Write the structure tokens for this entry.
Amino acid sequence: MNTIHWIYLFLAGFLEIGFTTSMKLMDGHKNIPWSIAFYVCVILSFGFLQEAAKSLPLGTAYAVWTGIGAAGTFIVGVLFFNDPSILLRWLGVSLIILGVVFLKVA
């Protein structure tokens, strides 16, 4: 497995955070800058995921991509959108991160 493919995968995951955040802010395509940001992030995220999946196991690549996106989007929601920040939610996101770490190590 090539290190560059892991870098692509992490970029794809962070871009997923970008597109979910942009989706929240684009107001049904009424906010043009956030709509553009959404589509740019979606296209780049899927592009990097596709490149990563050329070398990494597909299931691992998809799980890591969604894990980064889910955990990152959760944290963005708590920090910037006043999403609930209770212990059980943090435990849940911690389990997602732990699962991603196990997939990377395995």
Observations:
- The CA atoms of residues 11 and 72 lie 12 Å apart.
- The mean pLDDT is 95.
- The radius of gyration is 15 Å.
